[in-house]
Amino acid sequence: MPTANSLSAEQAREIRLSGWAGIVAMPLMFVTMIVVGADGMAHFPKLYPYWGDTGAQIAAWFAEHRVAVGLEVAAAAAGLVLLIWLISGLTTYLETCGGRTVVTRMLTPAAVATSVSMQASNPVWLLNALAGTPGHPTVEAFAKYTYELSWMLYLSGQMYGALLLLATAFAFRRTRIFPGWAVWSTVGVGILCALGVFVMLDGKGSLAPGTLASVLPWALFSFWVIAVGIALLRLRPDLYIDNR
Q: HEC states along the chain?
């Protein structure tokens, strides 16, 4: 079985670079989301319109935050691309340390599925941001349905994130190169991401899409991403790199 000592200097550099991708991805994926919804803290725990709000309320919110929403969508898309880079580096490290297994082979496809499914909500989100601009009339009923659809796509994408996290936890446990708390915290965040889909059952309550609680699983996922990125940066050349 390969060990960490079989890493070449070039592989180590590439893995560290993927770690930086994870560190950059976190603020792009999550911080921008919180910044856009920050003025909603006055209505805590409501950050965004509830999907139980009227079409007029939803359209008014997007008209007020049109530019910010556009920037958020672009930043989130970049962050989700960097997620694939991070997981590709993590997969390389895990395979070098513990060999290729079914679980490690799942990681990068799961990251791609998470990225693509999450980004599927972006064009729908932008439709509401563009409403009211030249060539894009505001239709209140359409605003409501597209807003709900964007949340459905976003929350459904968390299921792929949950798959990614749970598969990673198994890989962590098999290779034993990460501490036990990393395994169980990864499992915990994965379970929360899976359960987070069910906030769609709450129309206007404290768990409804648009509340702080509805974005909490993804917030924890984002912090997990930065933690993995830091871990990949801390490869020690004297222990892990074969410079021959």
A: CCCHHHEEHHHHHHHHHHHHHHHHHHHHHHHHHHHHHHHHHHHCCECCCCCCCCHHHHHHHHHHCHHHHHHHHHHHHHHHHHHHHHHHHHHHHHHHHHCCCHHHHHHHHHHHHHHHHHHCHHHHHHHHHHCCECCECCCHHHHHHHHHHHHHHHHHHHHHHHHHHHHHHHHHHHHCCCCHHHHHHHHHHHHHHHHHHHHHHCCCCCCCCCEHHHHHHHHHHHHHHHHHHHHHHCCCHHHHEECC
> From CA 48, how far away is CA 56, in angstroms rounded?
14
- Is there a contact between 13 and 243 (Cβ–Cβ < 8 Å)? no
pTM score: 0.87
| Non-local CB neighbours of 174 within 8 Å, separated by 6+ positions | 98, 101, 103
Q: What's at 135, amino acid-wise?
A: G
Give me the amino acid identity at 94: L
**What's the residue count for the chain?**
244
Q: Quick one: what percent of the chain has pLDDT higher than 70?
A: 88
For the stretch 122-175, pLDDT in tens is 888 888 888 888 888 888 888 888 899 999 999 999 999 999 999 999 999 888
Q: Is 44 exposed, middle or buried (0-12, 13-18, 19+ CB in 10 A)?
A: exposed
Output the six-digit token pair for 132: 């009211």
Q: Are 7 and 232 in contact (CB under 8 A)?
A: no
